Amino acid sequence: MTVTAPRGSQRKDAPAAAAVVNTGTSEIRELFTRNLRTSGIYVALVAIVALFAALTGGASLGPGNITNIVLQYSYILILAIGMVIVIIAGHIDLSVGSVVALTGAVSATVVIQHGQPWWVGVVAALATGLAIGAWHGYWVAYVGIPAFIVTLAGMLLFRGLTLVVLNNVSLSPFPADYGQIASGFLNGLLGGAGYDIFTLLIFAIAVIGYAFNQYRTRKTLIGYNQVVPSFPLFIAKILVIAIAVMVFAWQLAIARGMPVVLIMLAILIMVYSVIMQRSVFGRQVYAIGGNRVAAALSGVKVRSVNFWIFVNMGFLSAVAGIVYSSRSNGAQPGAGNMFELDAIAAAFIGGAAVTGGVGKVVGAMAGGLIMAVMSNGMQLMGIDQSVQSVVKGLVLMLAVAFDIYNKRRAGSR
Fold first, then answer.
1. Would you give the distance in Å from CA 411 to the centre of its chain?
2. What range defines the domain where residue 81 resides?
3. Residues contacting residue 155 through CB under 8 Å, at least 6 positions apart
4. How far apart are CA 55 and CA 377, in angstroms?
5. Average pLDDT in the 107-133 region?
6. Tens digits of residue pLDDT in 324-340
7. What parts of the sequence cross the membrane (predicted)?
8. Which of 25, 88, 164, 331 has its CA 20 to 30 A from that of 337?
9. What global pTM score does this model have?
């Protein structure tokens, strides 16, 4: 481990930082325990992937199945991005499943019933989601009704409006262009014999970008005399992640290429990660979730931030509604049922705190992937749906219990 002396303790003629490197087992142990709450979720994800790969005889890691996981669970991951932001701020949103259904219904009505171009349906769905988010944000931020009550009412209200819009019947099919949103692929752009070079290139660029960003972060931490892992362990971490990502890319490349929805999801993850970690708005969300009174005294416009949190949740619910309706090639009155619970579970399993103030977008993605891999693996094994629900419930309970245990342990120090 690299340990640097405080700035004030250095002599003027001394080196800028004195490094002590420990490459023994103690550093490896500390690497996994220093922030178990953050790193544990990724260890759990790897363990669950390995477990179901063994239980299914490798079928869960097949090229076709990996592609299906991306297509089938992308809308849950989109919802989880918005949900983790809501939870960080100390709220909850129970209406997202109903909003998915309503926005998909609006899009289907515009495109299928009224014959408008596919993009008009997309715009109509997004506008509906933004309006719903503003509705929730007004009651939560400016009237002061708890988000649990507002979104519970919204869950009932927007499910009913879905039935009204669809006249209690399903609408299908969408035009082929609309279906490309969730089921389209970018392949063959650069050729490849039995595999898609474009997919491999995109993931290779992503790995290089990740490695460069991690190197810059490491240099910044060293510049501020922060503790960082030794360079060999840093390189090992980058290599492990790079290998895992490129294996995933290879499986996509030999299947059907790069899914369009995966590109959409990657853009959303990058944008919202930057917003939550680097922007003033993101820091204000964390401040409100940590201590709302202190945030207000510090000059944070709590009402305005809370309002835009729910507007954003409405927007992402609409995006998920578009993806889901595209994937199912239609709109159904029962669409989005229980989606809110999957999104909430993904956020909590990914490390979000029940009391707010803690959580990351990438953590929610890891939590969502855990739920996706478990669901997919149990389906491949032919496990009954009731047993799947029991397993998901137990995993969620354990995740929240782990959060509470960490808080108590930290408070006792």
1. 29
2. 35-187+279-404
3. 94, 95, 97, 98, 340
4. 8
5. 95
6. 999 999 999 999 898 99
7. 39-58, 70-89, 94-112, 118-140, 147-169, 189-212, 233-252, 258-275, 305-324, 344-374
8. 88
9. 0.87
